[in-house]
Amino acid sequence: MKRSRWSKISTVVASSVLAIGLLAGCGGGEEASTDSADGGSSGDSAKVVKIGGIFDESGATGDVGAPYAEGARAYYEYLNANGGFDGYQIELVGEDYAYDISRAQQIYQSLRDRHKVPAIIGWGTGDTEALRSQIINDEIPFISGSYSENLKDTGSESGFNYLTAASYSDQGRAVLEWIAENHEGDKPARVALVYQEGHPFSESPMADLKAYAAENLAGVVELTPDILIELGDTDPQTSLQSWARSNEVPDYTIINYTWNQTRNVVRDGKRLGWDTQFMGLNWTAGEGLIPTGSDNQQWVDSLDGFIGVVTHAFPFEDLPGMDPIKEYLDSKGKSIEDINQKFVQGWTSASIFGEAIRIAIEEKGGDITGLDVKAGMESINDLDLGGLGSNVSFSPDNHAGTDKIRLGQLKDGQWEIITDYFSFSDLK
């Protein structure tokens, strides 16, 4: 039932240098105080520019949210230490909302009314989608750790949201195409979607994946009934057993959780003897999927062979864009062993927003507005991230920076990149 095989492609190191440079954001050209902000401050006479931050560092997705926030803060601190942009230092005013949508709303209002930020780095799907109408009314451009397909809309619903990596739906479409090209055997590939029903993040791409499989992969990929497991269910074996009583074990699973729940599902599936290729979208992948501690080897064995979507580089990759990160870490007495892939993801996302703000400052001077940042964002074309992520482009009609992903696989506890960047349309 398989189509012509797509040959496996290896990792390619970008040949160009990181194009972002020393950037900063702007919140109205204030004078710096003697108090240090998230992004740092160089002294009383420095002009301060602001960006808001709404992070999950201690809530339900804090396992990946905390290093993401750390990377975003580190990027702006690095800029300040290197002079900022055109005399401006950046002040990243960020708070932990602990994955509480009502708390995210409170922080947003403070960022808008007290700090008057012209741009915000947010986090979750539920809170980002809940804030859509407000950021449009307030004209505040917004990026986040959510890659919900809904945020690609450039019209009235999401006109100030921007995706800095492939949407969850585009990630899943690419995984389905990869499965179709690599599945062996005469029968269609049986694929189960694993998520929490009703959870804005976990369920986000699932309807799109079902539609894509039906419209493009009929007879090649066969979706099974969904496997529905709550993120807080730390012992999902019972749910998996119950599902398997009525269904044939799938050839593949596509999981959309963060590290903590992903590892539980894979562990329990293997305990039940499932001969399944476990796969997941981008928040399932990364070093934190394997916990450290006395039982580390058990997790290494349980998770061996897992394949995850990799939207951003691992610290161990020899890429031009890693040089500023290494320089920053060295200034702190640290090394790449002290960070993980989600730190790189936060750093890279912050740098994309930085480029938009750099353009706005260049065009308007220090006293910029959200509309100036929006114009800067929509003028970004094929921005080279030094290999830290797929190049991104935006326009008034395109708020999705890219649809490209890579795939990585765990082998003996280490991540290996098994594909180059590709999109689902490359394999159709």
Description:
- By secondary structure, the protein is α/β, with parallel strands linked by helices.
- The protein folds into two domains: 30-166 and 315-397, Response regulator (Rossmann fold, 3-Layer(aba) Sandwich), CATH 3.40.50; 168-310 and 407-427, Response regulator (Rossmann fold).
- Helices cover 36% and strands 14% of the residues.
- It contains 14 helices and 14 strands.
- The chain has helices at 62-81, 101-113, 125-130, 132-138, 168-182, 200-203, 206-216, 237-246, 259-271, 296-303, 322-331, 341-364, 370-377, 424-427; strands at residues 30-31, 47-55, 88-96, 120-121, 142-143, 161-162, 189-195, 221-223, 227-228, 252-255, 277-280, 307-310, 406-411, 414-417.
- Strands 7, 8, 9, 10, 11, 12, 13 and 14 form an eight-stranded mixed sheet that branches. Strands 1, 2, 3, 4, 5 and 6 form a six-stranded mixed sheet that branches.
- It is globular, with a radius of gyration of 21 Å.
- Mean pLDDT is 89; it is low at 1-29 and 31-37.
